[in-house]
Amino acid sequence: MNKKILIVSLLMIAAGGRWTEAKGQDTVWTLEGCRAHALEANKGLKVADEKRTEADALEKVALWQMLPKVSANGAYLWMEKSVDLLSNEEQERIEGVPLVGNLIAERLANVLATDTRNVTAGALTVTQPVFMGGKLWALHKSAALLKELAGVEYDKKKEEILTGVDEAYWQVVSVKHKKELAEQYAALLDTLTHDVEELVAAEVATKGDLTKVRVKRNEAQMNLTKARNGLVLAKMLLAQRCGMPLESEYDVQDVETQRAASPAHSSVDMETQHAASLQMDSVWARRRELRMLGIADSVAMQGVTIARSTLLPNIAVTGGYLMSNPHVTDGFQNEFKGMFFAGVVVNVPILHPGGFYSLKAAKAKRRETQWQMEEAKEMIELQVKKVSYELELAEKKLAEAQSNLENAEENLRLADESFHAGVVSSSDLMAAQTAWMQAKSEVVDAEIEIEMSKVYLRQALGEGIEN
Q: What does the pLDDT average to over 337-356?
């Protein structure tokens, strides 16, 4: 069995990292494994990845707008009537002159007989933009910025997925501990109920005492049922975020084991984090939201250039080869002949009122993004300070909860000894048990709160929760 477990574990690691660990007959999910599987299975992340591919292709499209364009065109026309260079009256005049008329008529015979009812033409053209008011370079720069934006959005989506997995994972750990605690508490009350029943039979305790204990035991059983149901739902949520079947059977590592397995998340140097939180320039540089707004500002700046280009001249050079049938390069003949050509095309806007308003709108758009950046910086600074305070408070809560738990355990031990010695009543023992359960629950809550506060602080500092 141990060899099989080892082989399965090695195969899982080879297939996708630390996803599960075999432990007896149970499948244990680790936080790192859940993260890896969620990233692999999430469809939203795949969409974000396709957007990166799309943005990369669009950047290349914008680049080609600045390079020469080669095109070939062909046309065929059928016309009802042929084209005559001379009218019938002009032809009669020429023919009326004895010598000249005969010579011109002879020379024009071929031209006048040319069939122009069927016209075929073709052209191979090369066009190179020279100056488009800065529009083409701005379009390429905008496309490059949008490519960068797609990459930042991908990273942001990835971080959101990991945050969701962390939340669901630590929720399972929390509810799992609450269920175990509820089981221990229910077991204590079962034992107490049995002891009080014996005391009632020995006429040392009253039926009222037994009733109180039974009511408390029923409450404990109800809380245990709620905890079990809560664990099922929490595990379903984690499975869904990991892209696994909702009915998956698994266990998760407890807080202590997970901390040992993830040293990067095991502790936080409060002084270091506090100092980092004060260096807001570095935090702003790392935050993806500000990077996205910075890219949006750069795109808006390119938009100003594009809007301004509508008010500037456009210049392009063109050249190519043109052929037609009939042709006129050597008289008017019904055969294919062609010629090379080259030229410059200039377009100068004269009356374009809409261009001025487009430029005004583009400048307003850029100012809008700049104000959004300023507002985002203020909100990020507030978030960093808030999360830093919450983590510091959670550390203090854990220290207090651990101290309270030590006192509660000692109080429970003394109450249990006193009860069996007949010094205190069952109510006193139940009060000690309840205090112990609450103290234990507060320790679990504080531990989970610390783990999530670390996630949120790293996210607020722009460090990423993978670090």
A: 89
